[in-house]
Amino acid sequence: MPSVNLTQHFIQHNAVCPPEKTRTDYYDEKVVGLSLKVLASGHKAYYLRYRDSRAKQVERKLGSAASLKLSEARQLAQEALAKLAMGNDPFEQRRTLRDVPTLAAFIASAYMPHVKGYKRSWDTDECLLLRNHVLPTLGKLHLDEIKRHHLIEVFSHHRASHKPGSTNRVIILCRYVFNCALKWEVAGLSRNPTAGIELYPENNQRERYLKEDEGRRLFRALEASQNPLLTYIIAMLLLTGARKREVLTAQWVDIDLEQRRWRIEFNKTGKTRHVPLSQGMLSLLAKLPRIDGNAYLFPNPKTGKPFLTIFNSWNTARCQAGLGDVRIHDLRHSFASFVINQGHSLYEVQKLLGHTQVKTTQRYAHLSHDSLLLAADSASGSVPWDREARASEETHQSALPTPERASAGDQPPGADPGTQALRPARQISISEAPADQAQTPLLACDVLRCEPPSGDK
């Protein structure tokens, strides 16, 4: 390892590797640690030897002598030594950048294996959202290269052809992907580029649920369906508020008639939940035809397995009932509305529907117009704005005997003194119910008053 006063002429003409060696190092006398490495093949390159933060001696390449002059190599070496003296290793930073994966590589090697282990809809993430809308634009960029404006361009392009709710799914998914990268300390990523990007306001949430007369029309049409199980399927959707796939794949082993409970093991949230069985559901299960040896409540008569789809028979029935705008998922809306309109709390609806967040439940908690009118009327008697009504009330009060006048004085202005003030059902505490009375919510069967047919249609 000779130490020489390197010159450009020496490097180009005199620096050679002896025949008996594979390489030779020439160390510069002017810059400590700078060396010229000459291989037997004739290749020449500049290197810098130093001690890292752990006091370990390391050697890093500065560049090829064919592309760097000696003066440039000395300048690079001096700059690197100055940064090392300040505690910053430029070579480690360079290695870190080389380790940063592209977005496509990170999703394929880390994110997808992770979500496949717990998320049932992982294929939707990969195929419909990432592969179609995100990766074509950002897939080849490294994670540290993706900035907020890149993502805004992707989301804006997606929003031009999709509804706000669909674009919000892409935003939320991208946010989760980068949060995973931060959580797993992927090299080169220090912040989430989706931070500060707000979701689009969603105005596409439908408020459609069945009214009592529509329920009667629907079940008359269902009873005429060529699918003998369609009436039972739709009735169970309305009686439990369950999701379509949960009902279609329901098994008898999950039905506990003694505890009046239906266990749903595989569902959207990935967690086992239990649905209470109302009297209407018990009646339906008692009349539901059961095939010996078949584990499913609603097996396809042709295959013996759950229906893959019931759209054709459902579409025929709803159109015959004049309810072409009612979707199967609207039956879940209807169930929530039935329960809310009977005075039960959002918490009860949340548990019945199996939601993990009460924010989701609020979308299903629709009050009928009649319920809103009753609520508004309950407040109108407390606003004595009408002078003629006040005068009439005062005249009526003065004409009453003293005991009745005192009793009527307890009523709000404008209220009928002959009637007793009633509290809304939602304000009645459950604790006031008799101890031996089952405290179960009033479910859809009590509102629809529908019953499946006694036999196959």
Biggest sheet features? 5 strands, mixed
Q: Distance between the terminal alpha carbons, to the nearest Å?
A: 97 Å
Structural class: alpha+beta
Rg, Å, rounded: 37 Å
How helical, in percent, are the residues? Answer: 40-55%
Produce the secondary structure layout.
Elements: E1 3-4, H1 8-14, E2 23-28, E3 34-39, E4 44-51, E5 57-64, H2 70-85, H3 90-99, H4 103-116, H5 122-138, H6 148-159, H7 164-183, H8 212-223, H9 230-240, H10 244-248, E6 255-256, E7 261-264, E8 273-276, H11 279-287, H12 311-320, H13 328-341, H14 346-353, H15 358-364, H16 369-380, H17 387-399, H18 402-409, H19 444-448
Parallel strand pairs: 1-2
Antiparallel strand pairs: 2-3, 3-4, 4-5, 6-7, 7-8
Helix pairs in contact: 4-5, 5-6, 5-7, 6-7, 9-13, 14-15
